Amino acid sequence: MTKSISIPQAEGVPAPAIMQQEVAIPVSSQGNLSSQDEALVRTGEALRRAGYSFTTVTPLSHRRVLARPANPSNLLRDIFGWSRPFSACDLPDSLLSTLEAAGALAISGDKLRTNVRFSTLGDQLFVHSAFPTEGADAVFFGPDTYRFARAIRQEVPNLAARSGMRLLDLGAGSGAGGLHAASLLQGTKPHLTLTDINRSVLRFSHINAVLNGVPGVQIVDSDLYCNVPGPFDLIVSNPPYLVDPLARLYRHGGGQFGSDLSVRIVEEGLALLAPKGRLLLYTGSAIVDGVDLFENALRERLKNRRDLRLTYDEIDPDVFGEELEAPPYDCVDRIAVVAVGVEIL
């Protein structure tokens, strides 16, 4: 049950011009959402109508931007993108009430903050955890999401498109990967499954499916593939690929350098691919003394498979450079992000 909060009021200060006009915020008719989650959908719909757009950056860049003075002309971006505190008078009553109904408001001194962010990817809008994403169950969206989406756009033309294709986004996070793939294949009326073991992820994935009007989406609580029987025409995954001291679900990939989960996703996913089906994995790899350890491990595991084609592309040679200052990455040259493609012949 949502706990009502007392919203600090500022008298005599009008709402910004972009949001001064009160708007009716309709309840979306899609999905079986709770009243709180419906309110988050209505919030996203209101932002979309207001022309809201926000590209989420790395946490380090986010902190640098927050160290600057707020820009009054970008109030919606400050509130719903940069996670800055705001006054109750900064938003119209309808939107403020909807945020409260969503349980998405928190007190920050004499001001308010939202506990969610909204980010744009093309013409889609995604809700996810507010900055900073330090909680064990945080739902992250950021530069990796945009690179993942780009890899999906490059992969989709290689599919043998047909009506009713089955898509799987494994460890879906905000659901952006699978929902982006479904939008690219909407002409085939695909059936999309979004999975994770993080209950917050399952909630946000459901909300984002409704917010973006993607039909035929199934949300499944599943540890990797255990609750998702195949076959699938396309499996996509952007798993955690670092070693995280806090073992946060969205960040910790296991093993010496964080790649164990990625290897499992490829190995175990092959049995669930339909003939001519494809698996796309976006992940990271530690490069040690010039050697890509993840690529070596993956090729060793698959060396006896003659029924598949493997592609391996380095997308960005150097990410998370700050990780190199401490174990286990203090012996690593760099951390690269890669796209692994597997096709069943």
What would your notes on this structure say?
- With 345 residues, the protein is of the alpha/beta class.
- It has helices spanning 35-49, 59-66, 75-80, 93-101, 143-155, 176-184, 199-211, 260-269, 293-302; strands at 105-108, 111-114, 116-121, 124-129, 166-170, 191-196, 217-221, 232-237, 273-288, 291-292, 308-316, 334-344.
- Strands 5, 6, 7, 8, 9, 10, 11 and 12 form an 8-stranded mixed β-sheet that branches.
- Helix 1 (35-49) packs antiparallel against helix 4 (93-101), helix 1 (35-49) packs across helix 7 (199-211) and helix 5 packs parallel to helix 6 (176-184).
- The radius of gyration is 21 Å and the shape is globular.
- The termini are far apart.
Kindly provide the radius of gyration, computed on alpha-carbon positions and rounded to a whole number of angstroms.
21 Å
Number of strands: 12
**First CA to last CA: what distance?**
51 Å
* Text of the CATH class of the largest domain: Alpha Beta
Tell me the structural class.
Answer: alpha/beta
Summarize the structure.
With 345 residues, the protein is of the alpha/beta class. The protein has helices at residues 35-49, 59-66, 75-80, 93-101, 143-155, 176-184, 199-211, 260-269, 293-302; strands at 105-108, 111-114, 116-121, 124-129, 166-170, 191-196, 217-221, 232-237, 273-288, 291-292, 308-316, 334-344.
